[in-house]
Design a protein that fits this description.
By secondary structure, the chain is α/β, with parallel strands linked by helices. The protein is 43% helix and 14% strand. The chain is built from nine helices and six strands, in the order βαααααβαβαβαββα. The protein has a six-stranded parallel beta sheet with strand order 3-2-1-4-5-6, with helices on both faces.
Length: 221
Amino acid sequence: MNNKIAFIFDLDGVIVDTAKYHFLAWKNLANSLGFDFTKEQNEQLKGVSRVKSLEILLKIGNIELTDEKKQELLLKKNEEYLSYVNRMTSDEILPGVTNMLNFLIENNVKFALGSASKNAPLILDKVGLLNKFTAIVDGNHVSKAKPDPEVFLLGAEKLKMDPIKCVVVEDAIAGVAAANAANMISIGIGDSDVLKDANYVFEDTSKITTAFLKSLIKRNE
């Protein structure tokens, strides 16, 4: 086993694009409360927990609710989201991801999932990737949302790796900040201007070549 380096992947926007399903569910929830919710406003929810997302949504709508009502809305939103998730297939794995994971497996590089999503195992199962991951850390395991590094530090612990030897692949500013706070190598997926604090940035996962992965592994040998 190559214990010189390990990878920790975010889920939404890196492995699959479930963000579109989150957006639909949040938008429908906002509409039911009497206000609209745009894709631009949805950017504020990237990489944050479900509870925090609801707080942001309610602030946008200038709505105050009891804790009981908030729990009811969280359940409603999640049920709609899961209705989309349950129809997912391997076709929804983002370009380049399967090749990247297979390359890491072939080179005995361990990797984990580090996601705020409480539905991460279900999603990975639906797209056929669940058995590929050495470890999974999701919203059920952490108490602090990104940019707190808890999710990635727990991932490193499960992989039995020194955080400084871990590479995080993220698409959100909060995720990159969390990786940097954990003293891990950060790879941003998306706009280089937005993710400027990442050590490396790629437009999308298909741009991460095996040559780049080899060089990253070699540098840590």
